[in-house]
Amino acid sequence: MKNKDNTILIAGGGTGGHLFPALAIVRALNEKNTIYVGSKFGIESKLNILNDFDKKYFLDITGIQRNFSLKSILNNLIFPYKFIKSYFISRKIIKIHQPKIIIGTGGYCSGLPLLAGIHMGVPTLIQDQNSVPGLITRKLYNKINTICVAYNNVKNIIKNKNVIITGNPVNPNLYSTDSSIDSKNDFKKELGIDENKKTILFLGGSQGAQAINNHIYNNINFYLKNNYQIILQCGEKNYNSIPDDIIKEKNIIIKKFINEEGKWNMYKTYKAADLVIARAGALTISELTFLGKAMILIPYKYAADNHQEINADSIEKKKACFVIHEDKLKKGILEKTINDIFNNNKIKYLEKKSLSAAFPEATLNICNEINKLII
User: Fold this and answer.
1) Which of 158, 241, 320, 375 has the fewest CB neighbours in a 10 Å radius?
2) 3-state DSSP assignment of residue 309
């Protein structure tokens, strides 16, 4: 997939759902000259995981704030200034590096480089992860050369021949070359956790989900009584709110964020889990189906355009998951569903259906579309 002496500019971030596709694409392309453009305020500026890029730029831009706090109102008032400033910085970056293509993976920081690229005659491609296309895609789709998506219903929203169904890119670190470690028990042993306990991985996205965290804390007796072992990615900002008795509990392994380094990487963690309970972010779903994991999805009800619920519904229709809405957590439906899955041997059925819902060639498909645009 290598294109000698091509410079690639990839813009996207804010959350892991927009950052990690950018990382997956640049690693698959394996280019020498790669430029990354993100935001000073996004997760990309806080995590040291952009080593695959030769040059990195962080724009002083955030999205429009939807609440009415004084800080949000002030941010919205200065948004036009930041928009114009970031647009001209994007033009300057493009002029300096002369990229052969500009790729946007979503988030408020991806729009300005794409817009500048359109105006400067550079080929452009958007990789839109969700079942409901993002604002940048909806605003620019008529001017973008190619839009790569993962959900068929996007074609009903954006009726344009430049929309291609490719699936979402998957981090290359989720591919295994070690055939000596295969079973869930092997991975539990590798992580140093109890091999004899059913293991449930809770994911709230890259930033965690306090509502899910609190539900676990409030219902901890259920998990202890049933001898379930929990791995919880709680989110950096939520760690200090964990009750002391939860931190001391040996059946709960708590991680602020599971990165790619060391023993606790995402691949091993996924593989060690018998069941994954997660938000319905598009990238999370792509990773879980790629690895064929049994899952329960809890959509974030405030997601833009309700896209997480639509993401989850599309997987549920394929019988590859159970969906539980956040408002129903207090009714005990999650706990009943967990017991039903384990007590009635539904794990293997869910794993099979999950794997059948995957796009295993998604990253390759996207790279092929990128190569078509590079002149």
Assistant:
1) 375
2) helix
**Mean pLDDT of all residues in 254-273:** 84
Please answer whether residues 110 and 128 qualify as being in contact, where contact means their C-beta atoms are separated by less than 8 angstroms: no
Tens of pLDDT, residues 96-139:
999 999 999 998 899 999 999 999 999 999 999 999 999 999 99
- DSSP summary character for residue 243: -
According to DSSP, residue 321 is labeled -
* Token couple for 70: 């004084």
User: Which CATH code for domain 173-356?
Assistant: 3.40.50.2000
CB atoms inside a 10 Å sphere around CB 155 = 15
Contact predicate 221/251, CB 8 Å = no
Specify which residues 37 forms β-bridges with. 11, 57
Residue environment code for 165-186, b if the CB has 16+ CB neighbours within 10 A, otherwise e: ebbbbbbeebeeeeeeeeeeeb
CA-CA distances (angstroms) from residue 74 to 68, 107, 209? 10, 21, 27
Output b/e per residue, 87-103; b: 16+ Cβ within 10 A: bebbbebbeebebbbbb
Nearest C-alpha neighbor of 307 from the set 144, 154, 119: 154
Q: Which fold has domain 7-168+360-373?
A: Rossmann fold (3.40.50)
Neighbours of 213 (CB within 10 A): 22
Among the residues of the chain, which ranges form H helices? 16-29, 70-77, 79-97, 111-119, 135-140, 154-157, 184-191, 210-218, 220-225, 244-248, 266-272, 282-290, 307-316, 333-343, 347-356, 362-373
Domain with CATH 3.40.50.2000 in the chain: 7-168+360-373, 173-356
Query: From the centroid of its chain, how far is CA 169?
Result: 10
